[in-house]
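Q: My collaborator sent me two sequences in one message, no labels, and asked for predicted structures for both. Can we handle them in order? The first one she listed is below.
A: Yes, handling them in the order given. First sequence, followed by its structure tokens:
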Amino acid sequence: MMGTSRMFHIFVVLGSAFMILLIILYWKEVGVSRQYLHNPVSPGPKIANPAQHQQQQQQPQTPQTPSFLSDIDAFVNQFLEPGTGEPTDPLPAETSNQSEKAEERYVPRQEWKIHLTPVAEDLRQRQENRQRLLKDVCANDSLSFPGKNRSFDDIPNKELDHLIIDDRHGIVYCYVPKVACTNWKRIMIVLSESLLHHGVPQQDPLAIPIEVAHDDNMHFTFNKFWKRYGKFARHLMKVKLKKYKKFLFVRDPFVRLISAFRDKFEGLNQNFYQSFAKVMLRRYANHTTPPDSVDEAFAMGVHPSFLHFIQFLLDPQTEKVSPFNEHWQQMYRLCHPCQIQYDFVGHLETAEEDAEHLLRLLRVDNVVEFPKSHRNVTSTDLESNWFDTVPLEMRRELYKLYEADFRLFGYDRPDSILNE
């Protein structure tokens, strides 16, 4: 009996020790899991204003690197109790490094404030017409163009780099170069609060330098989802496309081409001269050895004409080498309107009215205003003058190349140019 009792006590002691060991291992695993969940996986800290960049490097900034959980929280909070007028984000924590002047200038965001004055009926109708047109053209078999019938899953990741996300307000913006995209990128920076000025988020869009507005590191785009979310990236894109407000701004396709040519080839732009102008000069202007420097070329009076630019666009060899540059790539190829159902389609020709309507629709008109700017000097009235040197057959080929943009976004066929 004593032997049995002793064995029983031994088993009890061993069992107790085993249970204690299991408990220790369990809590250790829980701790590791909690630590893993809170490890930062988002991009780094917010970027200081370049003018104060050196100073900001020496002073720790208030905004913290977001974690995976904060990403999820930011996503969910966009849709909790909208319309309350209450801030959805906490105020920056007070730190001894922040100047008193900066604290005085910081105005807490009053998110989800609803504009009391209703939007004019003609503006509502304008948007309904533009969105209905997109659906009709995408569903109509009479017009075909590359990628029209593919699904969103079939769009290569590299072709989603123009879709900028603002998780703070639930916004997706597809930017189209030469369609006021600089100012809209500035607005997206202000809304996302990704740029600091004297330790607080920059609130003035026009204070953001052009080079900063176009810095890829300032914007979180769909093509960056793979790095952050891995195999869940495409699913999360679809969730955000379903829940968020999506918008883009477009422009008369031919006028946009004229604007791109003027901006990139009538000035001293070394990058575009090296990458494209020299190619045009060799292929179409009989300059076998054009100067290496754009300054030297302009001094010699050597630069591509608008006709050379159109020849370059129509040349099958151009896209065999590489896809069109974003400044003259078709708008539908940049923004995929047959795969993404946009909530707002703005036109540069009605930019001021559309911008005011959009900011109210996004419920951020209390946070930011669209910058007032001079009217673009490239107008539709001057379109015919630019095409005087372009043969009629080339004009018609060019229209076919950009016909989808004309049809999708409601721009009339330019008969004055195509029927001379």
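Q: And the one she listed second?
A: Here it is, processed independently of the first:
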Amino acid sequence: MAPTNGAYAMNRLAILSSFTSLLFTSLTTPASAAAIINRRDTAVSANDWDSVLKGDQGAGCADLAVIFARGTFDQGNLGPWVGGPFHDALISGASGINVAFQGVSTDDYPADLAGYIEEGGSNNCAKSLGSAVQTYSSHCPNAKIAVWGWSQGALCAHKSMGELGDAASKVIALGVFGDPISVWQDTVSFPSLPSSTTLLSYCEKTTPDPLCTDPTDDFPQSASAFIDRLVDIWKNVDQTHMNDAQKEAVGDLLVQLPKQAAGELGQLAKDIIGGHLRRWMLTPEHFWYGIDGTIKTAVDDLVRVYKG
């Protein structure tokens, strides 16, 4: 007799807990990663907007204020995969520009699988982000604001465009890494971009990110087997070009992915039948933007937009 979804999930979690300390060795990272990877661990949180968001009337204002929505399972309010490296790259690359960088509140946005798979990107994240932009813009009317997101955070960033109010005219850019919007547009209505906002979108195509390209892998067509396949891919991922924070995040993902997916196996089965399997393809290629050179390109593009 086949195990129930609950029994399956408990068995998988027990087995997977032993994986978190292993050194993984099979899939390869993008060829360019080795040449440009910064081995220094990055911050997983940034709170430069806090004094403004807390109502400090004496809080200073930046020239460029950036808010970032992290991806599913990410730690802190930026995460080690993309938000942290992008923060570091922007601070070092925006020479002569006073930058304030902020992550979306972890209290408002837990970056869990439910927000992604049940809502097409957390609605609370979008509201929190939009409210933060309005508050910052009200206190710092001369600041230029950029909204960024990766993975589920990209969906949150898109949704936040409908939560900006009068601050919409101050948002110069919407930047997204590994944007899954194409696999959600048939069921989720996303707001249009403000006329003043430039879309900056980055998708890994050399080693294709299946959330923003058409995948070529033949994934299993049952919910439990699909999760098994994802876990096996991550179990064998090459950690050579990851920093310590990212290696730790792999271990956490190996626990959180099957644990949180256990509560969504019914939805996964429906998505397989309904042709929405791509929504679930959280493969390693989706995590490379912080180590494959993309963040440097994104910084250059944002600075160009800022300078107008």
